[in-house]
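Checked the freezer inventory, then went back to the computational side. Two predictions to log before the end of the day. The first one is the construct we discussed on Monday; recording sequence and tokens without edits.
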Amino acid sequence: MFGLIPKEEKFFQLFKQMTENTIEGALALKDMLDNFENPAASQRKIKDIEHNGDSLTHEIIQKLNKTFVTPFDREDIYALSSALDDILDLIDASAQRIIMYNAETIPHEAKSLGFIILQSCQVVDKAVAMLGKQSNEHIFEACVEINALENEADRVSREAISRLFDEEKDPIQLIKWKEIFETLEKATDKCEDAANILESVVVKNA
């Protein structure tokens, strides 16, 4: 896979650092949703992790500009780094909205979405770890798993919003939680975007 021409392998290490950092953000979000003891502190922790993600993305772009022979297409390296950065941006955006909207309790659907986000990030990490290896079959399997998790998040989000419209009497609370649910679900969309890019990379370089 990826031919015999010597290429800059540092990209694989940086992508792995990005996915590990994303898992750290997802764990912090899940802890924030599950425990909700000090949400402001949790949000600050997630923001710090997101800043670290920005630094890693910047490092990849800088290296891309300086590297002559890349392990796969430049546009795919850029797209994958952007997609991984977007996952963490949505994790951070979810935490920010919970603080901004002064959430007092966390519905069970939000906790479920937090768990799905974490699972999705872990599978993305697993797929990225296999980039550049001889066999690409497991990357395809991981991408299928990410797609299934995104479908599950979509279902949970739809049911949560439907329940809101059925049960929530305060229109302001309805608007707030609808946006939070949608933002949480978008994080899994970004995981699926990363999976689609990984599939494309494997197909191009098979």
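The second is the one RB wanted added to the comparison set:
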Amino acid sequence: MKRLFTLTLLFTVLIINAQETEKKEKKFTISGSVDAYFQTYLTASDDSSQSFGTAFADQTGFALGMANVIFSYEGEKVGAVVDLVTGPRGAGATFNSDIVDGIVNQAYVYWNVSENTTLTFGRWNTFLGYEVIAPAANFNYSCSYLFSNGPFSHMGLKADFILSDDINLMLAITNPWDTNNVSSTGEYGYGAQLGFYNQYLNIYYDSGNNGGLGFEIDYTGGFDLTDNFFLGINGAYNDNDGSGFYGAALYPQLATSDDFSLGLRGEYFGLHGDANPAEESVLALTLTGSYVVDNLIIKPEIRLDSWSDAMPYLDSDGDATDNLAAFTLAAIYTF
């Protein structure tokens, strides 16, 4: 009887441990962010209908950025992610004019085929560029020209391969640029990313027809120059049937304390080709502070854009000018 009791107890313990292990292998999480900002022009009146011409944060006065909630289910080999957004930033990121109802930013399933290979199917944010849609993941609150002119998301299938501890490769086939629902023309886009010691070379191509992006090559990376000083780098060149854009941006960021950092984005961006015979270009300087209080990030920011061979802005008197400056104060809460 003692042996029987011991075996029964051991069997019960094994079942409980197996159930606990299974629970640990399946994990459901909820995360997200909420952001709002105040913006005023320093070189123009706030009631003028103009902006820098980059994505998001293009309102004066008090404005809402976006709210997003990410639902993630992670199993042992498979999982799914749904990222819902609302607000002007979410609407702009998904090319949707409805800023009230929830909008799908990302929705995909994935399969860890092996320890070194993962397949992802659905809609996911772009691999191109230094910046991303969610403001909490960017140091600067306003966005660069390089980010604004590239794709925001892709709808398709991608495969990620871990080639070694410091080298990885991604290959993708998608609907054409920012066609997030269907490919009604029968055309597709193709993407690749090679990661080498946290430096990334990105390539994307579609036919350029029907509003497509054409060809883009993009480098994104950075280096920790000291324990407190980081230098981010982004450079890209795009061509779509002889016209496109090019540019480079540096992101020096200095942590002055555990709670406060100061960063500068210096970007040079230009247009080329038949659509821009004047070879218009812009130098954009953005100085941003980042103060962290628990899960709240407060970002004061000053931005100055200055164009050559173009006068796209209006000054305080309503006259055309080649530069625009603004002060922005943003608050971002993450959970």
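For RB: DSSP finds three helices and 18 strands in the chain. Helices lie at 2-25, 88-93, 145-149. Let me know if you want it refolded.
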